[in-house]
Recover the amino acids of this structure.
């Protein structure tokens, strides 16, 4: 794949990445899928296909953050920064951030959320921190009020 891109066959490299991603759909290996998306995003960025690169890199970042692969997430963030594109307007919570935020707004503890979603407490905390930042709030009470949790029903 990288050798195709190095030889200037960007379309061939991207087709090979697509094949690899299709294979990962049936495998429980999110880090491998994320690494493929990261490599594909790099090739797309170098080929000046910035929006496609952003979409793939954001998917990769979500996968890395979900499994706690901080090193890979850092590399992906750096690649996203190289794109120089603005993020789409609006809070744009990822599906996982929304799952965690809704459970937290409903009154569940971080430990309960982690057990329900089969993720670590640290991952719950990271998802809540990103959701708070995107929603422009600072407390769980504000989250409950915004998402209609028990505290927001008053």
């Amino acid at each position: 794949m990288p050798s195709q891109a190095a030889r200037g066959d960007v379309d061939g490299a991207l087709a090979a990445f697509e094949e690899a991603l299709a294979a990962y759909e049936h495998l429980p290996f999110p880090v491998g899928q994320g690494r493929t998306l990261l490599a594909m995003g790099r090739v797309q960025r170098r080929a000046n296909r910035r929006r496609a690169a952003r979409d793939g890199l954001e998917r990769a970042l979500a996968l890395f953050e979900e499994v706690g692969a901080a090193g890979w997430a850092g590399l992906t963030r750096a690649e996203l920064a190289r794109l120089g594109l603005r993020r789409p307007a609006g809070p744009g919570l990822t599906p996982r951030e929304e799952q965690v935020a809704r459970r937290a707004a409903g009154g569940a503890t971080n430990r309960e959320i982690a057990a329900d979603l089969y993720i670590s407490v640290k991952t719950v905390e990271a998802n809540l921190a990103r959701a708070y930042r995107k929603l422009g709030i600072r407390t769980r009470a504000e989250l409950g009020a915004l998402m209609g949790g028990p505290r927001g029903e008053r």
